[in-house]
UniProtKB/TrEMBL annotation:
InterPro entries on file: Homeodomain-like_sf, HTH_RpiR, RpiR-like, RpiR-like_SIS, SIS_dom, SIS_dom_sf, WH-like_DNA-bd_sf
Superkingdom as given in the UniProt entry: Bacteria
Lineage: Bacteria, Pseudomonadati, Pseudomonadota, Gammaproteobacteria, Oceanospirillales
Species annotation: Marinomonas alcarazii
Domain SIS span(s) in chain numbering: 141-281
Keyword NADP: no
UniProt-recorded name of the protein: RpiR family transcriptional regulator
Record GO biological process: carbohydrate derivative metabolic process
Pfam families according to UniProt: HTH_6 (PF01418), SIS (PF01380)
Length: 281
């Protein structure tokens, strides 16, 4: 990545990170993931603090900045500060404010306290989903779904909940929907049923299950449209997606919710129902 021109905006930097992520070293990838997940912390954090939070040596931040054409960390940090001044409060900022308001440092773990924490964290995550999901991406996804002969949906382990709901919702609006569930270990065989006139919906969160990746790659090789729901712009599925939705879920004591992903699945399903109703009117 020599002779790289420094990005002029945070949006450009994020795009550059996505394009070059696979070429970065292990430590630079750690910084890349931190940068994409917590931009507001990068905006005002010191190299020492950020290094501790990201689990890397301070010099790694300088090397990361240099890799993307900046003279040093301070020059790169200005992009984050500028973006923060122009945009609404970030997801991380809202979480921090919520912790202060609800006293989450309190050791109280009664069911009532847990419910309050989970419900408020999910409310913040759902608000973030509505504010950051691009209308053009929603429209594009619904157009793809409306033109597809059949929808195939894949998601394993935690993501299976979202995938199975998607299949359920699409069937209830009389759409052909097939859950790629790998019964008997037959993911490859189920993926072979994909046709270029179909659509694959892939739901995958870190650490990004190999089963989902293999089905998604099989779809991409057949030029099957791919709608992805994931948790990071550098998810391995993002680069091959026709439409990619990056969803930030609420997290309490390392327990991650699925409320936002399910809300998105519901919005797409009902949005498709409205679109089909207009076409058939």
């Amino acid at each position: 990545m020599s002779d790289v021109l420094a990005p002029k905006s945070l949006t450009d930097l994020k795009e550059a990170i996505k394009q070059h992520y696979s070429k970065l070293s292990k430590r630079l990838r750690q910084v890349a993931e931190f940068v994409l997940d917590a931009p507001s912390e990068v905006a005002f954090g010191t190299v020492a603090t950020l290094s501790k939070d990201a689990g890397v040596h301070p010099s790694t931040w300088v090397r990361f900045a240099n890799a993307f054409g900046f003279s040093g960390f301070s020059e790169m940090q200005k992009l984050f500060q500028q973006d923060l001044m122009e945009e609404a409060p970030s997801y991380q900022d809202r979480i921090r404010l919520a912790r202060e308001a609800f006293g989450e440092e309190n050791t109280e773990q009664s069911p009532s306290q847990l419910l309050t924490r989970f419900s408020h964290a999910n409310a913040i995550a759902l608000g973030h989903l509505g504010e950051t999901t691009a209308a053009e991406d929603l429209d594009k996804a619904i157009q793809i779904l409306s033109q597809a002969h059949a929808a195939h949906i894949v998601g394993v382990r935690r993501a299976f909940v979202v995938a199975s709901y998607f299949a359920y919702a699409l069937r209830h609006i009389d759409q052909k929907a097939y859950l790629v569930d790998g019964v008997g270990g037959m993911y490859k065989e189920q993926a072979s049923a994909l046709d270029k006139n179909d659509v694959l919906i892939a739901v995958s969160f870190h650490p990004y299950a190999e089963e989902t990746q293999s089905v998604a790659k099989a779809a991409a090789e057949k030029n099957v449209p791919l709608i992805v729901i994931t948790d990071n712009q550098i998810s391995p599925l993002a680069s091959i997606a026709t439409v990619c939705f990056v969803v930030k879920e609420a997290e309490i004591d390392s327990f991650r919710s699925l409320s936002s992903s399910l809300c998105l699945a519901q919005a797409l399903s009902i949005g498709l129902a409205y679109e089909l109703e207009k076409k058939n009117a």
